[in-house]
Amino acid sequence: IGMLLAEFDAEKYERTIRQEGLEEGREQGIKQGLAQGIRGMVETIRELGSTKEEAVRRLVEKLNLSGEEAGRYVKQYWT
Fold first, then answer.
1. 51 phi and psi, to 5 degrees?
2. What would the pLDDT profile of 25-63 be if each residue is shown by its tens digit?
3. How far is 65 from 22, CA to CA, in rounded Å?
4. Rounded Cα distance, 68 and 47, in Å
5. How many CA atoms lie within 13 A of 12 on its CB side?
6. What is the 8-class DSSP label of residue 49?
7. Cα separation of 55 and 9, whole Å?
8. pLDDT of residue 58
9. pLDDT of 15 higher than 80
10. First to last CA, the chain
11. Calpha distance 79→42 (Å, rounded)
12. Maximum CA pair distance of the chain?
């Protein structure tokens, strides 16, 4: 135990924890930004008079989403 405590670097541990937190925050921000962009795209497609199927096709085409994933977004944001 003494050897472990002697080699434990508290500052390095804290830096690592902070870095992991920053990376997680960036990932969450990117996901939120993407979701907001998809929502705006779905709403715009709907407002232009397109069908849900057309919205799914465009999300697949423009954002390289799977048909299933695009369908979930359209279902979620088609209001």
1. -90, 170
2. 999 998 899 999 999 999 999 999 999 999 999 999 999
3. 27
4. 22
5. 3
6. T
7. 53
8. 95
9. yes
10. 60
11. 9
12. 71
Residue showing tokens 């500052």: 11
Reduced to 3 DSSP states, what percent helix, strand and coil does the chain have, rounded to the nearest 5?
85, 0, 15
Residues, the chain: 79
Q: How far apart are CA 46 and CA 21, in angstroms?
A: 37
Q: Would you say 65 and 59 are in contact if contact means Cβ atoms under 8 Å apart?
A: yes
Task: Give the separation between CA 57 and CA 63, rounded to whole angstroms.
Answer: 10
Q: What percent of the chain has pLDDT over 70?
A: 90
With a cut of 70, say whether residue 4 has pLDDT above it: no
The pTM is what?
0.69
Cβ atoms of residues 55 and 46 within 8 Å: yes
What's the pLDDT at 38?
Answer: 94
Write out the two tokens for 19.
């870095």
